[in-house]
Amino acid sequence: MKQLLFTLLCLFAIGSLQAQTVPSDELYGLGTWDADSLGNHRVVVSVEKPADAVLATLEWRRRDLNPEDKNLIVVDAATGKRITNVCRFTVNREKGEVAFQPQTVPGEYYIYYLKNVMSGSRYYPTVNYPPFENTASADWVKKNRLSGKNAPSLPAARVVQFQAINELNSFYPMEVITTAKETAQLLKEHPAEKYILFTEDRAFPIRITTDIPYKWIADNRHDRFSGQADKGEYYVFQLGVWAARSDIKALHVDFSTLTDAKTGAQIPASAFTCFNTEGTDVTGTVFKKDCLVKKGKVQALWIGTQLPDHLPSGVYRGR
To answer: How far is C-alpha 247 from the chain's CA centre?
Structure first.
């Protein structure tokens, strides 16, 4: 079946923004382990040379709050044994610093950072995250000068990959957050805007409301969206609205007609619906919905359009 290509033009443009650490397809993957005892997420790190203590700096960009309150478990990949000599230093949503005593060198180690304990019923479970367990021996801590608040100079354990137990639990790419520095730069490049728009494909549902996904920094796509659809398809896509500086009240979305410049064929504005601001009930009555976005929050706007079976193939552009 031939496809239609249409382009939506939004309202903003943005300059480039460079990140110090770049999340990528290669940096995020899947693994296999006992998730019931270790949680759904881990970091794979590599130790190349013998040392009594090494330091892993994990720029994990976590979506969960208060990671400093949660446990870390380090396991030797070769033996499956837990490493007990472990110390933490800086731990926040952007990064974690973990020192540990490697046993197999060269070798890889798994750092599990979201171990959870489930309680309650199967259908209404309660999830708790145990606090950090201090299992390091006092002699090892003293020998390697690990008792301070700041991480000492130690041989580095190299990050190989951030892994999830399956695709459903993967944070990549839509739950890998921006850093404070990247967010500040974004605001600097939009000095007058109360809110900032992002465009997103349907393949990447907007999952978090408290942070901007790093993907939006990398895509740098604020004023344009394009997608491919089949004739007769009900096509959907997203706008992400970040209330950067103030609450957004009575948010609504307006559409123009989309036109193919070659044939003059059109997709009427009336064919578009933003499900977050309007809809049609079971009686066929059109209604409006209030859409309020609190300052600092992200709101996903899902937009759909029914494409006619007889629509000529082409590139349809509109606003």
So the answer is: 23
Contact by Cβ (8 Å): 199, 10:
yes
| Whole-angstrom distance, CA of residue 191 vs CA of residue 96 | 31
The answer to whether 271 touches 259, Cβ cutoff 8 Å, is no
**How many angstroms separate the Cα of 125 from the Cα of each of 93, 120, 128?**
25, 5, 10
**C-alpha span between 116 and 69 (Å, rounded):** 12
pLDDT number for residue 21 = 65
The three-point CA angle 200-204-209 to 5° equals 80
Q: Does residue 218 surpass a pLDDT of 90? A: yes
What's the CA gap between 187 and 12, in Å, rounded?
13
Distance CA 160, CA 77 (A): 13
- Is the CB of residue 131 less than 8 Å from the CB of residue 119? no
Q: Are strands 156-164 and 54-58 parallel, antiparallel or unpaired?
A: parallel
pLDDT value at 20 more than 90:
no
Q: Can you list the alpha helix ranges (DSSP code H) found in the chain?
A: 35-38, 138-143, 180-189, 214-219
Could you read off the pLDDT of 281-302 as tens digits, one per residue? 889 888 899 999 999 999 999 9
Q: Residue 85: which of 136, 148, 47 has the closest Cα?
A: 136
**Total residues found in the chain within this entry:** 319
